[in-house]
Amino acid sequence: MTFSPDPSGASRRIGTSLAEINIIPLVDVVLVLLLIFMLTAPMMYRGIDVNLPKAASKPTAVEERMVLTLTRDHSLFLNDKRVGAGALETTLRQAFANRRDKTLYLKADAALAYGAVVETMDRVRRAGIERLGMVTEPARER
Questions:
Q1: pTM for this prediction
Q2: Residue 46 belongs to a domain
Q3: Is 51 among the domain residues?
């Protein structure tokens, strides 16, 4: 027989363990580590100290991006300025005459026929544009 302080006579196991995990100390440690990393991270990305020379000239200007827009009704716009269909090649030659970057971005409406877009691309190539980029929208993920 075992000694039981319970008057009913039911025996109790000695040394039972608590089955729950207390995560509050874990959260405290994680928050302290997060605070330490947030404070020390900006100090780690420091570059090399260099005394840069002073220059009287202005910094070089970045050229504006040239965008040709072809709308649903076959209207052409070069950087928001309307361009006639017949004057497209001459307008492009004038716009790119003094530019180093010969890149043009083409935004064409999705409802346009393939032939209309290819015809516009052909006129752009004849105007002397070296690089032609197509502007698209990213597909939506479902």
A1: 0.53
A2: no
A3: no
